[in-house]
């Protein structure tokens, strides 16, 4: 594929940092470096890290990783963690090509915004599913895009026909879009998951119209059913998928470790962006995550991930129980198969904003009004609820209060 076609001028203008280019040379036996200004580790106060797990296990970060964790290092991330993630991606997705590259970021948000910058030229038109992840919208709104074109979704996620009709009716004088951004599993905000038949249809459309797929998939391992739905990356016979993963929902959000996987040319451009912004994500947190993964191995990690998915499934079931009890007459929703969100349509209401941002707060209930997730803002009858962090009693109380509010609205 000709990746230059997809790259913004800003990205093409990025040159490798001459100082960062020295990093691999430091490995040459006998080399004496008066080049890079690495601080002298003798001055660092840390000698080791002990990682204490909730199950009582204690892990140590080994000396080599400890040295790497405390120093500047390769932009793409801790080499041992990159290697682990590479094997992991091969095992989880069996992609049709194996010379893909990986780069670790400060959470997947870091990589996502770098990918947007890499692809978007001022004046470009971008395609995004609607509703969409608010964190992607806030970044896209800060870019000088001419149009943010909404591709429709339903309870099964992105609609292939909406994508193909938008692309086939694209006005010839308008700049053709270069990518579609989507959250395919346990969607934020709708909770929907795109099954494999749709993914195949969408991949085919992306192939036919030569656009990239930005697969933002932090809820992939929060699928409640087995086997997991395969990813777009697993279908990528062309090298047109950039896949974003995250440890945030499975190990910890504060570790800020995410990774992007895809064609080496594109990943290199993302690395160039890191070289001129944050230099690299934190090696300390990467070393901690790596120590854990090394100890757990793939099987231990997957056991953990299954437990996390089962935890959220139980929360989902509690939500469904009380939603059926309290909201049945005043709202509609789809039961999510993954993730932590439910997208609820309020009956008889055109704009959920005032209800959620004022009256629900007065009743001490927090939720998100649907308009926050619309790429081109307008009133929405939807709200997004998250069941991730509430007890059964809190869920019951919240839905009961919400139902009271909605019943009062319909009465008034
Ligand atoms: N994409 C989506 C769809 C998300 O919901 C989030 C987190 N809310 C992110 C990306 C960012 O995740 P991270 O913590 O890995 O930066």
UniProtKB/TrEMBL annotation:
<feature type="domain" description="Aminotransferase class I/classII large">
    <location>
        <begin position="63"/>
        <end position="402"/>
    </location>
</feature>
<keyword id="KW-0808">Transferase</keyword>
<dbReference type="GO" id="GO:0005759">
    <property type="term" value="C:mitochondrial matrix"/>
</dbReference>
<comment type="similarity">
    <text>Belongs to the class-I pyridoxal-phosphate-dependent aminotransferase family.</text>
</comment>
<dbReference type="GO" id="GO:1901605">
    <property type="term" value="P:alpha-amino acid metabolic process"/>
</dbReference>
<dbReference type="InterPro" id="IPR015424">
    <property type="entry name" value="PyrdxlP-dep_Trfase"/>
</dbReference>
<protein>
    <submittedName>
        <fullName>1590_t:CDS:1</fullName>
    </submittedName>
</protein>
<keyword id="KW-0032">Aminotransferase</keyword>
<dbReference type="GO" id="GO:0047315">
    <property type="term" value="F:kynurenine-glyoxylate transaminase activity"/>
</dbReference>
<dbReference type="Pfam" id="PF00155">
    <property type="entry name" value="Aminotran_1_2"/>
</dbReference>
<dbReference type="InterPro" id="IPR050859">
    <property type="entry name" value="Class-I_PLP-dep_aminotransf"/>
</dbReference>
<dbReference type="InterPro" id="IPR004839">
    <property type="entry name" value="Aminotransferase_I/II_large"/>
</dbReference>
<keyword id="KW-0663">Pyridoxal phosphate</keyword>
<dbReference type="GO" id="GO:0047536">
    <property type="term" value="F:2-aminoadipate transaminase activity"/>
</dbReference>
<dbReference type="InterPro" id="IPR015421">
    <property type="entry name" value="PyrdxlP-dep_Trfase_major"/>
</dbReference>
<dbReference type="GO" id="GO:0030170">
    <property type="term" value="F:pyridoxal phosphate binding"/>
</dbReference>
């Amino acid at each position: 594929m000709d990746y230059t076609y997809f790259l913004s001028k800003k990205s093409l203008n990025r040159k490798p940092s001459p100082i960062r280019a020295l990093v691999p040379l430091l490995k040459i036996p006998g080399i004496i470096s008066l080049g890079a200004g690495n601080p002298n580790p003798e001055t660092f106060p840390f000698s080791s890290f002990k990682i204490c797990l909730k199950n009582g296990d204690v892990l140590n970060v080994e000396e080599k990783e400890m040295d790497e964790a405390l120093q500047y290092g390769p932009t793409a991330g801790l080499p041992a963690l990159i290697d682990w993630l590479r094997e992991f991606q091969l095992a989880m997705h069996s992609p049709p090509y194996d010379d893909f590259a990986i780069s670790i970021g400060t959470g997947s948000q870091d990589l996502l915004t770098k990918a947007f910058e890499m692809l978007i030229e001022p004046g470009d038109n971008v395609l995004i599913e609607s509703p969409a992840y608010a964190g992607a919208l806030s970044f896209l709104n800060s870019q000088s895009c001419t149009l943010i074109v909404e591709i429709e979704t339903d309870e099964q996620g992105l609609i292939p026909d909406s994508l193909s009709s938008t692309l086939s009716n694209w006005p010839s004088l308008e700049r053709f879009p270069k990518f579609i951004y989507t959250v395919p599993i346990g969607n934020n905000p709708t909770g929907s998951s795109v099954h494999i038949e749709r993914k195949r249809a969408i991949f085919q459309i992306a192939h036919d119209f030569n656009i990239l797929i930005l697969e933002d998939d932090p809820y992939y391992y929060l699928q409640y059913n087995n086997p997991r739905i395969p990813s777009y990356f697993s279908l990528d016979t062309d090298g047109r998928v950039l896949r974003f993963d995250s440890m945030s929902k499975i190990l910890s959000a504060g570790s800020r470790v995410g990774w992007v996987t895809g064609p080496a040319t594109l990943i290199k451009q993302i690395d160039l962006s890191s070289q001129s912004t944050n230099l690299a994500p934190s090696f300390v947190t990467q070393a901690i995550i790596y120590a854990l993964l090394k100890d757990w191995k793939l099987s231990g990690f997957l056991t953990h991930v299954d437990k996390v998915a089962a935890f959220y499934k139980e929360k989902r079931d509690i939500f469904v129980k009380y939603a059926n009890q309290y909201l049945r007459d005043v709202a509609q929703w789809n039961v999510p198969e993954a993730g932590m969100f439910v997208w609820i349509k309020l009956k008889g209401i055109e704009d959920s904003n005032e209800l959620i941002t004022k009256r629900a707060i007065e009743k001490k209930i927090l939720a998100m009004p649907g308009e926050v997730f619309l790429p081109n803002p307008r009133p929405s009858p939807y709200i997004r609820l998250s069941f991730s962090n509430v007890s059964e009693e809190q869920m019951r109380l919240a839905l009961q209060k919400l139902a009271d509010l909605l019943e009062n609205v319909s009465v008034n």
